[in-house]
């Protein structure tokens, strides 16, 4: 089993407040030229990736499953309660459209499987994202997380992503 060691992550896409705390603790701001690490390629991780790709920011996208949207496969047969127009990130739509993607009807309600097949999987296949996506990679902290401050310390010290 291989480990990817993430030291001093350059950004935290899920929690801007934590990111600010981390940046404050780094007076020389030596994160600047490091890639953003996005953990989890669900709808939110992929939207983060699309937004970074659009801005020309360097990133890697780590997913524990065998494909993006792995959790959604568990309930692929279920129809969503929100129509397509609320399920598609705007930067992702712009990126997909550049490659000839045709957006689904905005008012239709997709199933989980359709969300995967018509949006998340095509998005993950775009060259801007595919080259940054690493599947079968689970990220975990090496320290128990008791509260937020510990969480920051844990991620500042080191985190591991297991390739299995
Ligand atoms: C039955 C059902 C119906 C729903 N219907 C709707 C709806 O109609 N409208 C709506 O807005 N929302 C709906 N939701 C909620 C919606 O699915 C979630 O809000 C959405 O999937 C969250 O996206 P996410 O990317 O944050 O998380 P997830 O979809 O959970 O994706 C997280 C990803 O990260 C990966 N991952 C997890 N841990 C790690 C790790 N340690 N290292 C690496 N990778 C990791 C997982 O494999 C997964 O691919 C529904 C949910 C369910 C269960």
What does this entry look like structurally?
InterPro entries: FAD/NAD-bd_sf. This protein has 164 residues and is an alpha/beta fold. It has one domain (2-163): Rossmann fold (3-Layer(aba) Sandwich), CATH 3.40.50. It contains 7 helices and 6 strands, in the order βαβαβααααββαβ. The chain has a 3-stranded antiparallel sheet with strand order 1-6-5. A 3-stranded parallel sheet has the order 2-3-4, covered by helices on one side. Residues 8-20 and 147-158 have low confidence and may be disordered. The structure holds flavin-adenine dinucleotide. The site of flavin-adenine dinucleotide has 23 residues, from α2, α3 and β5.
Key features?
164 residues, alpha/beta, Rossmann fold, binds flavin-adenine dinucleotide, FAD/NAD-bd_sf
Q: Can you tell me the CATH topology?
A: Rossmann fold
User: What is the chain-wise order of helices and strands?
Assistant: EHEHEHHHHEEHE
- Oligomeric state of the chains? single chain
Q: What share of residues are in beta strands?
A: 15-25%
Protein structure class: alpha/beta
Strand arrangement, major sheet: 1-6-5
* Biggest β-sheet strands, sense, barrel: 3 strands, antiparallel
Low-confidence stretches: 8-20, 147-158
**How many β-strand stretches?**
6
Name given to the CATH architecture: 3-Layer(aba) Sandwich
Ligands and ions found: flavin-adenine dinucleotide
Distance between the termini: 6 Å
Total DSSP helices:
7
Write down the CATH class.
Answer: Alpha Beta
- Anisotropy-based shape: globular
How big is the Rg?
A: 17 Å
Helicity, as a percent range? 25-40%
Mean pLDDT across every amino acid position? 81
Number of domains: 1
């Amino acid at each position: 089993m291989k480990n990817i060691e993430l030291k001093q992550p350059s950004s935290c896409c899920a929690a801007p407040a934590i990111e600010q705390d981390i940046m404050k603790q780094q007076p020389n701001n030596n994160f600047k030229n490091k890639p953003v690490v996005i953990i989890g390629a669900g709808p939110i991780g992929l939207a983060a990736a699309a937004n970074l790709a659009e801005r020309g920011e360097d990133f890697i996208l780590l997913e524990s499953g065998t494909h993006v949207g792995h959790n959604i496969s568990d309930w692929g047969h279920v129809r969503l309660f929100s129509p397509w127009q609320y399920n598609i990130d705007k930067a992702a739509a712009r990126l997909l459209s550049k490659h000839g993607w045709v957006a689904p009807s905005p008012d239709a309600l997709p199933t989980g499987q359709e969300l995967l097949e018509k949006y998340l999987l095509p998005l993950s296949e775009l060259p801007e994202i595919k080259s940054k996506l690493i599947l079968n990679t689970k990220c975990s902290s090496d320290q128990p997380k008791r509260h937020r401050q510990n969480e920051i310390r844990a991620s500042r010290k080191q985190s591991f992503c297991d390739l299995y």
